[in-house]
């Protein structure tokens, strides 16, 4: 995939970073910063963080930028964009970045359902999609996966990157099971009675990873691992029940693949998202490390245990949605985004996230996925219903 200048004198890989001010976006820019001879940043987008956009655009001399929130289109700091930089505004303009002729790789670091259209158009345009936007595959896997050309869809999530790396050189028919590792989040080992009293501030204190607020809450409820299981089901073409979650508190084993002969391959490394981001840009080659190396002599013992789905019910809800398929994962994801935000805003309790998602899933009529427009409608209906349930809970 790479067209690095250091590989046979070829030009640098031209990259668009969608959501460049978030956790994945800023770490992607750090990888690009460390490998300027191999990577050229040609397009950036933010939702509203215009100062971060201007700073990155000036540092990397970026010719194309987008602010998706129209309320920030006239921010004074945008006057500081480099000379010749084209500024566009709105959600459609973000999708446009994914199809620019001068872009080789689209890093989709957008959060939530909003990233699906950009990922879809990137694949349709023949770009390589390095995606951290798992909701794209969860909601629209039935539409996106048929568009994927060999080597053109590379996961950035640490777990799916690990599986992707473990499968290099292997045959699909030899895969028996995928093991998705999970830190367990900040509340592992607590009872439901204890979870009923936790605060958003406590939930945002993840023990091993630094991430954005939405995904950090998803990790606390284990919904994130459920979303990743659906993602793995689509990405690696395995049944939902052949994707198993394994709680691994040290976050050094990023996931594993078990084969029919009983052999298991694992990918290990530091708890640093720059490593899978870099591999998404370099694969099948490898570049000098952007993340700190693990001192395996000093490493604490590695432990594994089964997830507690009775206490953390969001994981089982996600599995139920993945087994049902069709539009149910889309509705589930929408309800979760509403409930997750409601918890962070103090409108509901931690366990209410699970209750809201469950209610919306029970009231959803499952249909076969046929179009992005259909998924937009499913998403909107589920959000409306979830907001209504959230209002009931908040009263």
Gist?
Keywords: Isoprene biosynthesis, Magnesium, Manganese, Metal-binding, NADP, Oxidoreductase. This protein has helices spanning 23-34, 50-60, 91-97, 116-124, 134-144, 158-166, 192-195, 200-203, 213-221, 223-235, 274-282, 313-324, 328-344, 350-362, 372-394, and strands at residues 13-18, 39-46, 64-67, 86-89, 105-108, 128-131, 153-155, 175-182, 243-247, 253-259, 264-268.
What labels describe this entry?
DXPR_C_sf; disordered N terminus; Rossmann fold; NADP; 395 residues; seven-stranded parallel sheet; alpha/beta; 15% strand
Q: Strands, helices and their partners?
A:
Layout: E1 13-18, H1 23-34, E2 39-46, H2 50-60, E3 64-67, E4 86-89, H3 91-97, E5 105-108, H4 116-124, E6 128-131, H5 134-144, E7 153-155, H6 158-166, E8 175-182, H7 192-195, H8 200-203, H9 213-221, H10 223-235, E9 243-247, E10 253-259, E11 264-268, H11 274-282, H12 313-324, H13 328-344, H14 350-362, H15 372-394
Parallel strand pairs: 1-2, 1-5, 2-3, 3-4, 5-6, 6-7, 8-9
Antiparallel strand pairs: 8-10, 10-11
Helix pairs in contact: 3-4, 4-5, 5-10, 5-13, 9-13, 10-12, 12-14, 13-14, 13-15, 14-15
């Amino acid at each position: 995939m790479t067209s690095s200048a250091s590989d046979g004198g070829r030009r640098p890989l031209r990259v668009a970073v969608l959501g460049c001010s978030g956790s994945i976006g800023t770490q992607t820019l750090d990888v690009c910063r460390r490998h300027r001879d191999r990577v050229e940043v040609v397009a950036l987008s933010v939702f509203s963080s215009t100062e971060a956009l201007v700073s990155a655009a000036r540092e990397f001399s970026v010719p194309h930028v987008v602010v998706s929130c129209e309320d920030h289109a006239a921010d004074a700091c945008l006057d500081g964009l480099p000379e010749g930089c084209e500024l566009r505004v709105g959600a459609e303009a973000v999708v446009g970045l994914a199809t620019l002729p001068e872009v080789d790789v689209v890093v989709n670091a957008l959060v939530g359902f909003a990233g699906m259209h950009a990922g879809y158009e990137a694949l349709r345009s023949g770009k390589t999609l390095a995606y951290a936007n798992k909701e794209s595959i969860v909601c629209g896997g039935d539409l996106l996966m048929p568009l994927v050309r060999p080597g053109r869809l590379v996961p950035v999530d640490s777990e799916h990157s690990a599986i992707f790396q473990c499968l290099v050189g292997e045959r699909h028919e030899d895969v028996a099971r995928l093991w998705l590792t999970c830190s367990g989040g900040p509340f592992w080992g607590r009872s439901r009675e204890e979870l009923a009293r936790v605060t958003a501030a406590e939930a945002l204190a993840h023990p091993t990873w630094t991430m954005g607020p939405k995904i950090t809450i998803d990790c606390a409820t284990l919904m994130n691992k459920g979303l990743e299981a659906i993602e793995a089901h689509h990405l690696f073409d395995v049944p939902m029940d052949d994707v198993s979650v394994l709680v691994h508190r040290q976050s050094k084993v990023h996931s594993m693949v078990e084969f029919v002969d009983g052999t298991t391959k694992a990918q290990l490394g530091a708890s640093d998202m720059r490593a899978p981001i870099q591999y998404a840009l370099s694969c099948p080659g490898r570049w000098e490390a952007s993340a700190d190396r693990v001192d395996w002599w000093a490493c604490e013992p590695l432990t594994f245990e089964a997830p507690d789905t009775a206490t953390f019910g969001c994981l089982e809800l996600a599995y139920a949605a993945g087994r049902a398929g069709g539009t149910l994962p889309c509705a589930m994801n929408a309800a979760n985004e509403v409930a997750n935000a409601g918890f962070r805003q103090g409108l509901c309790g931690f366990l209410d996230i699970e209750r809201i998602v469950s209610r919306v899933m029970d009231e959803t009529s499952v249909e076969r996925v046929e179009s992005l427009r259909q998924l937009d409608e499913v998403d909107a209906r589920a959000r409306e219903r979830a907001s209504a349930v959230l209002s009931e809970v908040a009263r």
